[in-house]
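Hmm, how's this folded?
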Amino acid sequence: MFTRTHRWTHRARALTTAASAVALCGLPLLSAAPSSAAPLPTAPPAPACVALYESWRYVTASNDCATPHQVQVVYQDGATGLCYALAPRTQTTVGEGYLGTHGHVDHLALCEPYEAQTGP
């Protein structure tokens, strides 16, 4: 013999299962990227003569190259910082440290105008 609680639980379970099925079936449609979207060009990494120093508060870049470079910080979460011009043999603060909103730095990237490299 079924009680009222058992019937209510059975109906609630059926509704939850139906809602989950609808959500899972609609998820691939919502997250699919358009096929005509071209990949965005990514900035090349800074040359090896541009050094990166990371602390809990600041990220500092040092240009030991003979030529000036414009660099930006790329964090591990994908966020990028502002572009900073580094003259030869100079050093400047280029971003917030790992206790900031984006966490640790992944690398320094050039933000000079560059050409996207395409395959053959």
In short: The first helix runs from residue 4 to 31. The first strand starts at residue 50 and ends at 54.
